Amino acid sequence: MPDLATVLIVDDEPQIRKFLRIALGAQSYKVLEAETGAQGLEQAALGRPDLIVLDLGLPDMDGQAVLAQLREWTQTPVLVLSVRASEAQKVQALDAGANDYVTKPFGIQEFLARVRALLRQATPGQGEAATVRLGELNVDLAGRRVTLAGTSLSLTRKEYAVLAQLARHPGRVITQRQLLIDIWGPSHAEDTHYLRIVIGHLRHKLGDDPARPRYIQTEPGVGYRLLEATAADQAFPS
Prior knowledge:
Layout: E1 6-10, H1 14-26, E2 30-34, H2 37-47, E3 51-54, H3 63-70, E4 78-82, H4 87-95, E5 100-103, H5 108-119, E6 131-134, E7 137-140, E8 145-148, E9 151-152, H6 157-167, E10 174-175, H7 176-184, H8 192-206, E11 216-219, E12 223-226, H9 229-235
Parallel strand pairs: 1-2, 1-3, 3-4, 4-5
Antiparallel strand pairs: 6-7, 7-8, 8-9, 10-12, 11-12
């Protein structure tokens, strides 16, 4: 059990945040707070929490939208804490990427038990980075921005989605099939020509030579990997 895990509370009710801050602090957790969805997304990116407690009824945006944006770049566990008690709303949140769901009012001991259960799979201080930097390439997963040598790149939705998926796992091969399913959907699992076209466009915008790749490497017949910074730097030494 991580004693120094960081928990982000995103809830617009000051009393709830205070109650949870005291309860979590008594268990040696570090607590971050946000009262709006925008603040929650910013804290998730900057504070790199190990767990996010998310209310769905936020003043600036629905919690479901916050969850969707979080899942675009991080797999940090999310515990939804909401007055919405219908089965359909719970299923919607869980299908959108929430790891657990607790309805208000709630018992603090049950809440803490659920926190402990989710944190067993997390390592303190190891929340996912919001920005992946590989050589001169910066992929801002939280802000959905890509820059190369300080210059912003204009990418299509599919181009960004492919690059972001590779950036979440630098150095690892992501299979063609997995990329197609994740980005185009299960019905396009065999449409490899879609992926080849997007990869070609990405390489052109990155100035990447397929024969001597600095960023995107092809594993023939398998998939693609985004080269880690060291490999990229060795390909084109300064």
